[in-house]
Amino acid sequence: MSVAGARALSRGKPRLVVIGNGMAGMRTVEELLQLAPDLYDIAVFGAEPYGNYNRILLSQLLSGEKGADEIMLNTKAWYAEHGIALHAGDPVVAIDRRRKRVRSRHGVELPYDRLLIATGSQPIMLPLPGKELPGVIGFRGIGDVECMLAAARAHRRAVVIGGGLLGIEAANGLSRQGMQVTLIHRGSVLLNQQIDADAAGLLGRNLRARGLALRLDAETVALYGGERVEGVALADGERIDADLVVMAVGVQPDTALARSAGLHCERGIVVDDTLQTYDPGVYAVGECVQHRQATFGLVAPVWEQARVCASHLARFGHRRYRSTQTATKLKVTGIDLYSAGDFLGGAGTEDLVLRDPRCGVYKRLVLKDNRVIGAVLYGDVQDGGWYFELIRNATDITPFRSRLLFGKRYCQALDERQTRAVA
């Protein structure tokens, strides 16, 4: 047993072990410290050799807009200040639920009274010939960014596979580092999970203007090379030379450890409304979990999970987690894009659309029964948060429908004038 484990036993406090030193697990710990700062002896195990950092800002680390110290949320000194034993670079490899113990890769064994699993997700690596070649990586952590930056210093050409948020951010960052970048997407619409075709067209035009080559409706079938990756082959026979290939086609919940411990998993680790697994002593939060058939990849729901889970760990068991609407914003400097809700619409819906190609502005609001149910904004996103509130609150927009596309300020001005007229 480690010194930290022995110290926890001698104090007689219940022991909380956290598996995963990422944003979800540590946000839960922060919430717990606010509610019950002295309740547990806490130990945290993380696979990466750092403190806790903001994974959302990895694209800005890649582009050179931020340094590694600027994306840190909790430095190693923070853990010491709060009496938390941090085992950085030493992931847990086994959970013994019967004995309530964990074992790390380096052989550290600790007992627990409560266990919090926050193993996050793993990048999906396409099962293509050549995927094991050096120079083929995912985009998930600081280590991946360091590999990309090293490649940018030594090589010229990069291919990014995947036209979603991560793919576009990776492609833009590598381009800013001086690489010739080709972005390959199997669909005809970039960000097809977040925006509609019109906004995607404006986005594609912007990316091409930045020097990126786009291959849409393109299927990658193989990677080729000798000692290192040298390019990708497409289904139509085209071959694109590349010294670096980044796969950004999505992520999947990291459930391997939980499964090996016998916890119930489907796509993710199955949790109830308190973020408790089928084992009452084990909780799970973040991208590794599945709640009511849903899995998660955005920050807002994970923060709410952290609040609920911390409440129950602190023995204030009054909160329940419910999935809610989420919004998406692209994190690429100079590209303003925002979407929320049901932006595609369907039967019984209608669209309000504003297009200004000259200024590169596009807005589309989807309405149903005089309520906003979805929004796509490109070029002017300052009212994104307000539209999201309208969606979430199911606000009746009848009084200001004619001004809705012009934003909150114009709608409020109309409301104030009507109020003064009545008075």
- Full CATH superfamily name of the largest domain: FAD/NAD(P)-binding domain
Number of helices: 11
How many structural domains does the protein architecture include?
A: 3
Q: Which stretches are low in confidence, meaning pLDDT under 50 for 5 or more residues running?
A: 1-10
Q: What CATH architecture of the largest domain would you give? A: 3-Layer(bba) Sandwich
C-alpha Rg (nearest Å): 24 Å
Say how many strands there are: 27
| Separation, N- and C-terminal Cα atoms | 74 Å
The residue-averaged pLDDT reads 92
What would you call the structural class?
alpha/beta
Strands of the biggest beta sheet: in what spatial order?
A: 5-2-1-9-21
Could you describe the 3D structure shown?
Residues 327-394 form the NADH-rubredoxin oxidoreductase C-terminal domain. This is NAD(P)/FAD-dependent oxidoreductase. InterPro entries: FAD-bd_OxRdtase, FAD/NAD-bd_sf, FAD/NAD-binding_dom, FAD/NAD-linked_Rdtase_dimer_sf, Rubredoxin_C. Belongs to the FAD-dependent oxidoreductase family. The structure is a single chain. By secondary structure, the protein is of the alpha/beta class. It folds into three domains: 3-122 and 251-313, FAD/NAD(P)-binding domain; 136-247, FAD/NAD(P)-binding domain; 336-422, FAD/NAD-linked reductase, C-terminal dimerisation domain (Enolase-like, domain 1). The chain is 28% helix and 27% strand. The protein contains eleven helices and 27 strands. A five-stranded parallel β-sheet has the order 5-2-1-9-21. The chain has a five-stranded parallel β-sheet with strand order 11-18-12-13-14. A hairpin with a 2-residue loop joins strand 26 (361-368) and strand 27. Helix 2 (23-35) packs across helix 9 (299-313). The longest helix is centred in the last third of the chain and has 15 residues, at 299-313.
